[in-house]
Design goal:
Layout: E1 2-7, H1 29-44, E2 52-59, H2 71-77, E3 81-91, H3 98-107, E4 111-117, H4 121-127, H5 133-146, E5 150-157, H6 165-170, E6 177-182, H7 202-215, E7 218-220, E8 223-225, H8 230-236, E9 241-244, E10 250-252, E11 255-259, H9 263-268, E12 273-277, H10 280-292, E13 298-299, H11 305-316, E14 320-323, E15 326-329, H12 335-343
Parallel strand pairs: 1-2, 1-9, 2-3, 3-4, 4-5, 5-6
Antiparallel strand pairs: 6-8, 7-8, 10-11, 11-12, 13-15, 14-15
This protein binds S-adenosylmethionine (SAM) and iron/sulfur cluster.
Length: 344
């Protein structure tokens, strides 16, 4: 079992971001955390002790919440954690102070995922980030000093304002993981419709990915590391996850569930959720898409006879590789195209 906790607060809103987060609802933090505990206790009712192998605290910005506010969450979850569980928290450079990092480390967080996006002041400004490159370097250095063995950074690329120094700097840092996302122009964000900001050329993506891969092996379209996140791999293997918090998503067997997106609604009724039932076919297709995007691969049994003919063709063309009755994608960048070709 995996667990995702959503923190829907941010200090400022970045120009590209459509995630469920608010800059003007900090006064609801305390009540929100109370509701998180209520939902968590309910979700844990039928769960075996020592069955959670990873937690991911994401957002929004988890570093907008003081470590002491997470104490009850960690106290409640402790009996359910497997030994050596991976516990990741996202953090932003402006709010992940040395004290915050120490506090989270003391609570048991084992991995920090920093939203860095870029080390270029110009690029940070265009993206609407509220930190400098120097603050970002300081935060990574602090996390390393505090003793986090696993540190990851998020970078945004495939923009028309990319800067070569992003990767030069990133490859020298005391980190073991990079998530790099091609910029997407999301609806209801200031960037929406500004096509001139995106570099869609495959050359740009390939070069960026090749450079990162030289130090950090790619294990999914957007993820690279000498350390591979247990939580990420769990998602891609189709494992169950608890989704705690407004805007979180949970998944169990053949159901996906969604607690209220609105913070106010969630605070009023943290146990309310919308449930989506997935058919066998939904789950099968999902397995193909997820497996081909990363090193997990797809069991041959998953494919229909008709699909197998296309898989065999792709094997001949060396787009896929087969090992022990599983097929693996040789080029994650075209994963969706390959999956669509197979299922169509
Ligand atoms: C949950 S978000 C933010 C985590 C953290 N608050 C931060 O800003 O770093 C996780 C990551 O998604 C990426 N992201 C969000 N919106 C994006 C977009 N429109 N295009 C590309 N990457 C995006 C960013 O790299 C971001 O760090
Ligand atoms: S990228 Fe991170 S800091 Fe920026 S608005 Fe989105 S969640 Fe908040």
């Amino acid at each position: 079992m995996l667990l995702y906790l959503h923190i829907p607060f941010c200090d400022s809103k970045c120009h590209y971001c459509a995630f469920n987060s608010y800059v003007d609802k900090f006064h609801l933090k305390k009540e929100y955390i109370k509701s998180v505990t209520i939902q968590l206790k309910k979700e844990l009712e039928n769960l075996e002790k020592k069955s959670i192998k990873s937690i991911f605290i994401g957002g929004g910005t988890p570093s907008t919440v003081e470590p002491c506010s997470y104490e009850e969450f960690f106290e409640t979850i402790k009996p359910y954690l497997k030994d050596k569980a991976e516990i990741t928290s996202e953090a932003n450079p402006n709010s992940a102070t040395l004290d915050w990092l120490k506090g989270m480390n003391n609570l048991g967080v084992t991995r920090i995922s920093f939203g860095i996006q870029s080390f270029s002041e110009k690029k940070l400004k265009i993206l609407g980030r509220n930190h400098s490159s120097r603050q970002a370097l300081r935060a990574i250095e602090d996390a390393n000093r505090v003793g986090f063995e696993n540190i990851s950074i998020d970078l945004i690329y495939a923009t028309t304002f990319d800067d070569e120094k992003d990767l030069k700097i990133a490859l020298e840092l005391p980190i073991n993981h990079i998530s790099s996302y091609a910029l997407t122009l999301e609806e209801n964000t200031p960037f929406f419709g500004k096509n001139e900001l995106v570099d869609e050329s495959e050359k740009c993506s390939r070069e960026f990915i090749e450079k990162i891969s030289s130090n950090f092996p790619q294990y999914e379209i957007s993820n690279f590391g000498t350390y591979q996140s247990v939580h990420n791999l769990g998602y891609w293997r189709g494992e169950d996850y608890l989704g705690i918090g407004s805007g979180a998503v949970g998944f169990k067997k053949d159901k996906r569930y969604y607690p209220s997106k609105s913070i106010e609604e969630y605070i009023k009724n943290p146990l309310k959720k919308e449930v989506e039932v997935l058919t066998e076919e939904n789950l099968r297709v999902e397995r193909i898409f997820l497996g081909l995007r990363c090193i997990v691969g797809v069991d041959l049994e998953v494919f229909t006879q008709k699909e197998m003919q296309k898989v065999e063709l792709l094997l001949k063309e060396r787009k896929l590789t087969c090992k022990a009755n599983r097929v693996y994608n040789n080029d994650f960048l075209v994963a969706d195209e390959i999956a669509l070709y197979i299922i169509s």
